[in-house]
C-alpha cells in the first residue's frame, strides 16, 4: 500500500506551470531521491507535499487522507536553508519544535534525548547552535523534522552547502532514517542519490520525466559504456569510433574515451576489429553499466 499518492499535481505562477501535472507514489520504508537541475520544480513539489503552499490543481493523499485534511502530522520537513536561533542550544531548539508540534513536555524531553543521540549530537546538545558547524546544523534540522515521529521525512538539498565531512555525516544519517520511515530528498548531486536511495523521481522543467527503482531504470536503458584508453591517442579516433553502427556517443576526458553503445556484443567486436586494422595501442578496455548521470543526461536532453 502507498504511503503517499500524488496525482496530476500542478502549481502555476504567472501562467507558467512550475510543477506540471506530476504524479507518483511513495511506499513505506523507501528512500527516494528527487532529482533535477536547478529550476526543475523540486522545491515547489516538496513544499506542496509539506503543506506550505497549495497546489493549483491535483491531489495528494496520505494514507487515504485527502488534501482537504491536515496531513502535516505525517510529514517531517527540512528546507534547503533552515533557520535556527543561534542563542538556543540544540536541546532547547528541539524542545521548542516539539511544543510547536503539540507534544507534551514529557514527550518532548524523551524525544529530544533520543533524537540528539540518533543524529550524534548528544555531547553538543547543551551548546549554542551559533557554535555548530554546517553539518551539525543540518543534523539538528533533521532531528527537528523527526520530533513528532512522521511517516514521511522530506529533505530539500540536505548536503548541497556542506563540506565533505558534513556531507558524509548527513548521508550516513539518511541511511539510518530509512530503516524506520520513508525518506524523500531532493538533490542535484547524482552520486549522493545513487549512494543512499533505491528509487528516483527525475524532474525537468516542471515535469516528471523518469521514475522508479534505479535498478529497473538502468535495465530499461538500451546503452552500455565501453571505456578505452591508448598508449598514444590515435588520430581521428572520435570519427572512426562513431562510424561503428552500434556506437551511440563518444566522449573523452584526460585521455580516457567513454564509448556509449546500443549493442554490446556487436560494438565490442567492431572496436577490436578497428583496433587491429588501425594498429591502435590499446591500454584499457572496460565495460561499465550506465550510471545515474548517464540516465539523467539522456532523460533531460530528450
TrEMBL record:
Gene3D superfamilies: P-loop containing nucleotide triphosphate hydrolases. PROSITE patterns: ABC_TRANSPORTER_1, ABC_TRANSPORTER_2. GO terms for molecular function: ATP binding; ATP hydrolysis activity. Keywords: ATP-binding, Nucleotide-binding, Transport. It comes from the Bacteria. Residues 4-230 form the ABC transporter domain. Belongs to the ABC transporter superfamily. This is ABC transporter ATP-binding protein.
Amino acid at each position: 500500500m502507498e504511503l503517499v499518492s500524488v496525482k496530476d499535481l500542478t502549481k502555476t505562477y504567472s501562467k507558467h506551470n512550475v510543477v506540471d501535472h506530476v504524479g507518483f507514489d511513495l511506499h513505506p520504508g523507501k528512500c527516494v531521491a528527487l532529482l533535477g537541475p536547478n529550476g526543475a520544480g523540486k522545491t515547489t513539489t516538496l513544499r506542496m507535499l509539506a503543506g506550505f503552499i497549495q497546489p493549483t490543481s491535483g491531489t495528494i493523499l496520505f494514507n487515504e487522507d485527502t488534501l482537504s485534511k491536515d496531513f502535516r502530522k505525517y510529514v517531517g520537513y527540512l528546507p534547503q536553508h533552515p533557520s535556527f536561533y543561534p542563542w538556543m542550544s540544540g536541546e532547547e531548539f528541539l524542545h521548542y519544535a516539539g511544543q510547536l508540534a503539540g507534544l507534551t513536555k514529557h514527550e518532548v524531553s524523551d524525544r529530544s534525548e533520543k533524537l540528539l543521540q540518533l543524529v550524534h549530537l548528544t555531547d553538543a546538545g547543551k551548546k549554542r547552535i551559533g557554535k555548530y558547524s554546517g553539518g551539525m546544523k543540518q543534523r539538528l534540522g533533521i532531528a527537528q523534522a523527526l520530533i513528532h515521529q512522521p511517516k514521511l521525512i522530506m529533505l530539500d538539498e540536505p548536503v548541497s552547502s556542506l563540506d565533505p565531512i558534513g556531507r558524509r555525516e548527513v548521508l550516513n544519517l539518511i541511511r539510518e532514517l530509512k530503516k524506520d520511515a520513508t525518506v524523500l530528498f531532493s538533490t542535484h548531486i547524482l552520486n549522493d542519490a545513487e549512494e543512499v536511495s533505491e528509487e528516483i523521481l527525475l524532474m525537468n522543467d516542471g515535469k516528471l520525466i523518469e521514475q522508479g527503482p534505479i535498478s529497473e531504470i538502468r535495465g530499461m536503458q538500451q546503452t552500455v559504456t565501453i571505456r578505452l584508453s591508448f598508449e598514444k591517442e590515435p588520430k581521428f579516433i572520435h570519427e572512426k569510433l562513431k562510424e561503428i553502427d552500434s556506437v551511440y556517443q563518444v566522449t573523452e576526458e584526460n585521455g580516457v574515451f567513454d564509448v556509449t553503445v546500443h549493442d554490446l556484443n556487436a560494438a565490442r567486436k567492431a572496436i577490436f576489429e578497428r583496433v587491429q586494422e588501425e594498429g591502435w595501442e590499446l591500454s584499457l578496455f572496460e565495460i561499465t553499466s550506465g550510471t545515474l548521470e548517464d540516465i539523467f543526461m539522456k532523460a533531460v536532453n530528450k
